[in-house]
Amino acid sequence: MSQREHKTVEQAQAEGKYIRTVRSFVKREGRLTKGQAHALENFWSEMGLNHEDGMIDSKALFGNDNPVTLEIGFGMGKSLVEMAKNAPDINFIGIEVHRPGVGACIALAQEKGVKNLKVYEHDAIEILADCIPEQSLTTVQLFFPDPWHKKKHHKRRIVQPEFVETIRQKLKVGGVFHMATDWENYAECMLEDMQTAPGYNNLSETNDYVPRPDSRPLTKFEQRGHRLGHGVWDLQFARAE
């Protein structure tokens, strides 16, 4: 009996085999509405960024030297578009894996006349590795990521020590990593990971959470949660070195 060969994921995929890899998200495609499909078809060349194009140059991309805010997982894009519209002196880049959300974000940005926003439809981990230069970001935003609330699924949570260090490298010194979650256990885990991570300072006066900044729009989901007595936890950590 011949010895079983062990192949890398890349080798197996090259041979046409499907390999299940761990992701911090579940891709729920859904159908595009006519408006989303129209936005993707007509405005992707203006607002869309492609992973295969590699490292970006934000000055060339936006035509200015304004600070850059990166949001990971913007959902349908409503709050991201609102933030970009309210802060025209900041350049925004959004990353989202779900195509309908990307289409909805582009459509809304066009409707609102937002020009300081670009978006990726891709996995954030790969975008950070291949497209975002080190020390290029003023802010990284991660709002309401999938909490993977079952303990056996905690390893799928995106906020892990390796991810936290990747974010630090992409931030300028003094740049801020801003997280928000409505799942208390995840908030506690985020806080623990950030407090033990080297090279960060907690911006909380109480060394834990911060009040929701005015720059983060209050979503309908969050408003409903407040009415029902649900909590939301914001964390802000600045790159120290």
Automatic annotation (TrEMBL):
It catalyses: guanosine(46) in tRNA + S-adenosyl-L-methionine = N(7)-methylguanosine(46) in tRNA + S-adenosyl-L-homocysteine. Substrate binds at K150, D182, T219, K220, F221, E222. CDD domains: AdoMet_MTases. Its EC number is 2.1.1.33. InterPro entries: SAM-dependent_MTases_sf, tRNA_(Gua-N-7)_MeTrfase_Trmb, tRNA_methyltr_TrmB_bact. HAMAP family: tRNA_methyltr_TrmB (MF_01057). This is tRNA (guanine-N(7)-)-methyltransferase. The lineage of its organism: Bacteria, Pseudomonadati, Pseudomonadota, Gammaproteobacteria, Alteromonadales.
